[in-house]
Each structure stands twice: as structure tokens, then as C-alpha cells.
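Hi L.,

You mentioned the student needs an example of a multi-chain input paired with its predicted structure. This one should do, with 1002 residues in total across all chains.
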Amino acid sequence: MEVPILSIVVFTPILFGVVLFFFPAERHREIRIFALAGATIALILSLWAYFTYDQAIGGYQLVERYSWVPRLGISYHVGVDGMNAPLVLLTGIVMFTGVLISWGIDDRPREFFGFLFILATGVFGVFVSLDLFQLFFFYEIAVFPMYLLIAIWGWKVTREYAAMKLTLYLFVGSVIAIVGGLAMYFASGAHSFSLFALEGAGFSVDFQRFWFPFVFFGFAVLGGIFPVHNWSPDGHVAAPTAVSMFHAGVLMKVGAFAALRVGIMLLPEGARFWAPLVLGLATVNVVYGAFIASIQTDFKYVIGFSSVSHMGLVILGFATLNLNGITGAGIQMFSHGVMTALFFAVVGMVYDRAHTREIPKLGGFIKVMPLVGIAFIIGGLVSMGMPGFSGFVAEFPIFMGLWQSQPIVAIIAAFSIVITAGYIMRVIGRVFFGEMPEELKGHITPINTFDKIALVILSGILLLVGVYPTIIAPLVESGAQVVLALVGGA
Amino acid sequence: MAFLQAHLLTLILFSPVAGGVLLLLIPRERLQAIRWAALFVSLIPFGLALWLWFTYQPGVEGYQFVEQAIWYEAISSSYHLGVDGISVPMVMLTTLLTPLAILISWSIEDNVRSYMTLFLLLETGMLGVFMSLDLLIFFVFWEIGLIPMYFLINQWGSGNREYASFKFLIYTMAGSLGLLLAIQMIGVASGTFDLIAITEKWSALNQSLTLFGLPITLAIGTVKKIAFWAFVVAFAIKVPIWPFHTWLPDAHTEAPTAGSMILAGVLLKLGAYGFLRLVLPLYPVEAKYFAGVLGFLAALAIVLGAFASWGQDDFKRLVAYSSVNHMGFVVLGIAAAAFAQGTMQADDAVIAINGAVLQMFNHGLSAAGMFLLVGVIYDRAHTRDLNELGGLFPLAPIYGGILIFTAMASLGLPGLNGFVSEFLVVRGSWPIFTLYTAASMLGLLITGAYILKGIAKVLQGPLNEKWLGHKMEINRREIIAIAPLMFLMLLIGVWPAWILNIINQTVKLLFG
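Structure written out for the whole complex:
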């Protein structure tokens, strides 16, 4: 009897979350330890799923399938392949480090971790879903806790506005996608929501071209595509640290990934037809996002907009519809996920102590928090695409893919690298170096061990992938091959 | 021994950064321990490089000490290292200058551990560029050199360091962007990043558009042209070639002494190396077509760089502009070879490139030496203003003698190294680019002017009263640091064959 690894990974968080609600609310310490235990189990299992994937065999592995609602053709169907295995691992990593970073939450930690874990289950579920209905189901499970997490534990100034904006955008996006999904279900005649059935359904060219925008853009809202990206910076900033880590690190990948799974893989002809538009919009993401990030004065907004920029690269990679681009996009989802989790962790540590995120009011942090500064520098180098780190390993194939499909886009998008370098180095210089403002001196407490562990794990992964790309590239490439087989590209 | 032989380049390449990581284990207050440990670590690649030098066989075609390993197979890039007669002297230069730069940094008091670690990381970056036989690895190491230098200037530099470091970073990164795009294009067009494979296939790509069956929407000719210009701009910024030189005076002036030594001594050579290793072999046709422009810019760099030096009141800035002046000769030699390689005048081209490569090595020595000496004075006088200094010879006779010696090497006095390389460049370029060479020789007059101005303003003339009673003389540690440079300057000046032979054998094969 095979151990249902994936189901355990998917359901462990929500199980732990539900059990957490039975804890007495004041037992903060036990709540935290229990949460950490759950996160650890999820991390270990996701590592297992990642490293036991056999590339020689390829295809979907660790597959489980159970009938769910047979009358409607809905099944519970999960599996990992080269594209989602890194994302499952990413979720495990972000969940684990997110719990470590949230150790200090004093306001209703029980509910906080409970909702966070429901969110985690939703995310895991979307990544491993091989049934369309199930994918939507887990997607919604991932979106609704965000509202509560931001509205209750977020930054008082904008939390209600940001939570509402985020939820509305994402729900509307998902409704549009659901409409597209249902259209596919009915048109396929296969009476099944299974992705495999839908892949082989043979939709007509016109059908695909008509419905692709619904599904792709509906999900790409969560991926942060221009011009429906503006829920993201506000959402990032208003959310508490661990939620920002999840939001930018994992949730936005859910959007891009779903756009890939449901949009590109099921409606390849539509993807080919709409590719130029997607390329154009994503280019705007990349360049415009970088420019906007440059002019922000709030440390967290800088990171928020840089996420918009980097997710643009993911979407660009997908839109190339070739092996290099899709492989690069897959690696970028992982790399950016870890990097942005690191960024938000750092921002949270600075904000918790300085009680401001205004860059002009910060300075000199590297002397009092050297590890935090170095971690941020590493993250910064990744976001610049500096060789030796994972960002380069991800961006390089994306650019190669762009050369093969639309060279002009490669050139324009490449400019963002210099802009990114500019604003990142300036932020590093202003926040971490220079003189610490008088009001802050003596008030900055050092970070605790859990914070250090989280920073070291995240930084270490970014460096490891950078110097040893073989640890991720062949796996993602095999997943990209599967996508290509459906799209029929080069 | 066999292990050493088989992995010599990897050992040379990674011993600095490995040592740098170990340095992080020393507690940050143990300054002396950190300094000595860093010095010791930097001597390891130097020792290995000496071994490399003596076991390298000149005249054998192709690369030696080749190593290859899997790195990023998904995009056909491998970890591929190798050296030839052009890169061996560069490796030697890098591993020689780093310990000397570390020795000079004894007076740094802030954050010594971070400083030393950054230096060692920088060394790995520079060595990697010289040893790479894979375009992607070339780019990786090229970029790795940028960030440590940014922090070295930004954190340990002088007054205007924030501006200078930021300008350096953004300017060079913008250039690297072109390099990145060009490398990507080449990778896509030829299906690999391996330099040896590309060099073989590249000229053949002239003939057929669909040779690799890739759906490129640009004509292959256009791809090659864009890549050529992207390479040229990226390397032109690094060398630097006028008018892409404006980051240099600020960066060199504001960097800490050791930083300037390495910037001028090695980093500039990365650009010239890029021309020799990538542009000329891959693009002989385009290079020949634009060689005239390159020669013109080289002459401009020589003449205008010299005038700019002459006009400086800041000793360090004077030396900084002298780098523009000296690197101009390197570019002149490269331009001449670009024009004449493989033609009737190939022999002259070979002489010119010999001169260019030797000038790269020589300038490394003399520029590092000059910046070292500027640093010596600055440590004591806390000013670089030539009008404030003056008449220091009686107070610091040993320093004075060393300064004159090094300055003469920089000026190109026969008997010292500068003369040999500049003569070779001029001799080689004269038949090819007579006008530009003639202009450069006029530029040499101005070179003499600024060098002598530097010496005169510092050592001669009336003594500024405030220096009386100050200890101005050079100390033993600094003498030990500059001694190897002086020795080599003299040795190459009177007997260049020991190094020219290695360079020449390879240059003949590549450009003859």
C-alpha cells in the first residue's frame, strides 16, 4: 500500500489548523510549537516529494485518484511533475520559515496560525491538482483566509482597504476563470473535470481562442499581470510578515501556475494566439514594476513592486511557449518565491524594531543586525540576476527563450536588470549602511535564533541553486517538456 | 601531484574564496590574525600560479590545464577552464597583485574581516574570467567581480565614495547587460556556450541560416552584428575606451588604496582580455571593419588621457587618468591587430598584440605601484593635493627613489618594462595605423609631462612647512609590498624574453 504522500502534504496544514482551534487561546507557547510541528512535517514531506521524483521515468508521480462526485465527473486526483514539485517544496519552505518568523505574534496566535494553515492547504492543493474542479476548490480555500489574515493582523493604516481590494480582485479573477473552466467542461463532452480528459478533448481553434483569455487572465490576476496587478503591492504591504511571505512567495505562483495548467496546457491554440498580448503586458510588468519600485519611499512597497516586476518575468517565460522560456519560468517561480520570502522576512524584522518603514527614516542597520543585512544583500543580488545566485539561473533561460520568440522583448526586459540594480543598491545603502537615525539608536534589539534559522535557510537555498543549478534545472525542464508536448512548441 | 596537475586551475580559482569563507571564522576583533590569515590565503593561489607558469608549455596549440565539468546542462553550459599564453600572464598578475594589495591594507581598521573577505572573493571573480572557456561561466565570474568592488569603494573609500561606487556599479552593469544579451544570443544561435565549440562553428554560421534549425526571427547576420556591438560596448566600458571612461577617475580616486591597485591593475585588463579572447576571434570581419574607429579612439585615449592627467591637482586622480592613457596603447595594439590579422601585415599585427598583452601586464605592475605610492603619502599627509605636497624628497628619500623608479616605468623609460611594451605596440601599429600611432607618440610627450609633474610636485620644490616633524618616510611593510613590482619592472625592462616568449607563442598561433 503506497503511502499517500501528497495527500498528507496537502491536508496536514488544515488538519493542524483545525486542531489548533481547540487549543485554549492563552496557551501561546503550545500553539506555536504545535504549529511548528505541522510546518515541519509539511516541509519534510515536500522535500521527500521533490527529491524522490524520478526524472528518468518522467510524467506524473505519487499519483492518487479517488472518485469524489462521480455524477459530475469530479475526482480527487493529485500528482507531481517537474513543474509543480519545486512549487510544493517552495510552499513547504515558506510555511516553515513563515512560522519561525511569526514566533513573536502575540495577538491571537491560535487564529493566526489556524488561518495560515488553511491557506497553506489551499496552496498545496492547487499545485498538485490534476482535476479542474479540485483546482478551483483549493484555489478558493487559499484566497479567503487572506482576507482575515490581512484585515485582522495587518498594518492598521491600510489593512481593511488592502484586504478588501485583494479579495475582490482575486475572487473576480477566479469567477472569470471558473466560467472559462465550465465552458471547457461542457464543450469537452467528456463529462469529466480531469485535466487529462480536458487535455485530450480536442477543442476547436475558435473555442480555444475565445476562452483562453478567461482562464488565463482570470488566474493571472493572482499572478500579478499588468494591468490587474495593483491589488498586490497594497496587499503585500498591509499583510503581516508571514502572510506577505506567503502572498508574494507562494500565492502569486499559484496564479501563474494555474494560468499555465488550465490556460496554456488545456487551450494551447489559444495560448499561441494570445501570446503576443501576454508578452506585451508582462513586459510592462517587468519594466514598469521596476520603475515604480525605484520611486517608493516605503521599504515594503519597494519589495511589493519588485514582486510585480519579477512575476512579469515568470509570465514572459510562459508566453515564449518554448523549452527555455518555460524552464526558466519554472525556476524563477521557485527562486523568486524564496527570495521574496527572505525580503519580507527582513522587512518585518526591521519594521518590528524601528516601527517605521520609511526609507529616509532608516539607516545603519547592518551594524546592529549584520545577519539581516547580509541576508537582504543576498536577496538583492538574486533580484538583480547576479550570477552565483538562483535569480541568474532562472532569468537566463527566460531570456534565451525570449530571443527565440521575440528578441525585442528580451532587449526591453533586460533593461529592468539595471533599474533593479539601481534601486536595490540604493535601498541597501540607505537602510543598512550610513548613519542610524538618533531616535532608533539603542532601541534595536537583536534577532532571535528562530529568525536566524529562517534567514540562513532562505539565503542558503538561493546560493545553493545559484552555484549548483543541476539541483533544480533538469527537474523543471522535464516538466516543461510535458507542457511543450501539449503546446507543440520548440 | 596528478591531482594537482589535473585540477590546478580550479585550485587557483577557488582557493581565494574558500580561504575568504574560512576567514569569517576568525573573531572580528582579532585584527592581526585576520590580516595575516588573509595574506597567507592569498599566497596560496600565487604559489599555485607560479607552478602553473613553470609547467605551462609555450608554443603548444590550444589551451592547457583544461578542466570540464557539468554545471547548467539544461542550457548547454559547462564549467570549462583552460589557459593559453594570453591568460597565463593575466593569472600571474592577479595572483601577484592580490597579496600585495592585502599587505598594503594593514592600515585599514574598520571591519577588517569583511574587507579581506571581499578582496578574496574579488580575486576569484577576476581569475574566473581569465580562465573561462565557457561564455556563461565567463559572464558569471565577470559579474562576481563587480559587487565586492562596489562595497570596497562604498564602505572603505574616501570622501566621494557613495557617488563613485554607485556610478561604477551602474555604468559597468549597463555594459554587462550588453554582454549578457550578446552571450544569450550566441548561445541561442549556436546551441552551446562552450567557447571552443563556438569558435569552430561561428564563422560557418555565415553561410547557412538554418544550420541549427532554431526558429530565430532575426537574420543570423543581424544577430552577429548586434552581439558584436554589445560585446564591444561592454568591454569598452571596462578597459575603458574613450568616451566610455568617465566612471574611472571617480572610482579609482575614491577607492581605498588596495582597491585602486586591483581596479587599475587587474579589472581594467578584463575588458582588454575580452577583446582579445572573444571579439577578435569570433568577429574578425566586423572587427576589421571597425578597427579604424577603434584605433582612432585609442589615440584619443592616449592623447586626451595624458592631457587630463597633466591637468590634475589631485595626485590620485592624476594616476587614475594615466590608466586611460596607458590602456590606450593596449587598445591601439588590439585595433592594429584587428585590422591586419591574417593579412600580409600579419607579422606587424603579431608584434602589436604582443605589445598589447605585455602592456596589460606592465600597466598592471606600474599602476598598482603608483597607486600604492599615492596611498603611502595619503596615509601620512591625509591629502592628495599636489599643491599641498612638495619638497618631500629630503624627508622621505627612500620613498622618493621608489617613486621616481616606478614613475619612470610608467613613463616608458628604456630599461624598464613600460618601454618594451609601448615600443612593441608602436612598432606593430606604425605600418598599419600610421596616423594614429604618430598621434600616440605625441601623446607620449604629454605622458612625460604629467609624470614629471607628479614627481616634481611631490618630491621637489619648496617644502610645505607643515610636513616638518611628520614621519613621511615609507615603512618596511610598504617597501616589501612594492619590491616585487619594482623587480619585475626592471627584469622585463632589461630581459623581456621570459614573459614575451609565452605571450608570443600563443599570439603567433592565434593572430598570425
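You could point out the following to them. The interface with chain B takes residues 324, 327, 381, 384, 386-388, 392-393, 396-397, 399-400, 403-407, 410-411, 414-415, 417-418, 421-422, 425-426, 429, 433, 469-470, 473-474, 476-477, 490 of chain A (CB under 8 Å). The first helix of chain A runs from residue 5 to 20.

Best wishes,
N.
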